[in-house]
Write a structure and sequence with these properties.
Elements lengths: L2 E3 L4 H25 L2 H28 L5 H6 L3 E3 L10 H45 L16 E4 L5 E3 H5 L16 E3 H15 L1
Antiparallel strand pairs: 1-2, 3-4, 3-5
Helix pairs in contact: 2-4
The site of one zinc ion has 7 residues, from strand 4.
């Protein structure tokens, strides 16, 4: 694109190479060689912070121009067009920047509704889960027979023991598998909750 660092001392160019290539490579290599988890985690954290700062810096660059990366900011380097600008030629540098800024902004504006929708979906799910767990309330959701979360949960009418429908049905009698036989009738938890809710509505 005919863009280069023009008119800067080799020292500055070398400095940029050190900061952008050598330092990240060496720190990564050292943490890898040390094999320490805390160092690796710290390195990842620093890298994430640097990436975020770079992104913010780039957005700032798109809006206002100037240095395109942090390193360029520190060393006050700048890309210039190799061709000497003439009065008749258009300054494409600014136009490109403007174009990128608008593309970036449009992408954000376009994707925001989708992100928002996804977020709302998650929030709705969490609300539903909270509501369901509060309705279950005192019930232990583990089956007393198989010790796993009850599938199609049934609950003892008085004892409140929870069991899967399949675990209850294998005994051929719809009674609590834990309490003495033929004493505690089991009923579906869903039905009980529904009845309970209707009861609350009636009582109000
Ligand atoms: Zn079970
Ligand atoms: Zn029971």
């Amino acid at each position: 694109m005919d863009i280069a660092y023009a008119g800067y001392s080799p020292k500055l160019i070398f400095g940029q190479f050190i900061i952008e290539v050598f330092v990240p490579y060496m720190t990564r290599r050292m943490t890898e060689l040390s094999g320490r988890m805390d160092l690796t985690r710290m390195h990842a954290k620093f890298e994430a912070i640097f990436e975020l700062t770079s992104l913010l810096h780039f957005i700032y660059f798109l809006r206002t121009g100037g240095h395109s990366t942090i390193t360029e900011s520190i060393l006050s380097l700048r890309n210039w067009n190799n061709n000497q600008p003439t009065i008749s030629s258009i300054n494409y540098d600014t136009q490109n920047r403007e174009l990128m800024w608008h593309a970036f902004r449009d992408v954000i504006l376009l994707t925001y509704p989708f992100i928002d929708k996804a977020r709302q979906k998650v929030v709705r799910k969490q609300k539903l889960a909270r509501k369901f767990s509060s309705r279950l309330g005192s019930y232990d959701i583990e089956c007393v027979v198989c010790d796993k979360p009850a599938v199609i949960p049934m609950v003892g009418q008085k004892c409140g023991h929870m069991a899967c429908y399949t675990c209850v049905a294998t005994s051929r009698k719809m009674t609590c598998p834990l309490c003495s036989e033929n004493v505690e009738q089991m009923e579906f938890l869903a039905k009980k909750l529904e009845d309970g809710e209707r009861g609350i509505l009636v009582n109000q």
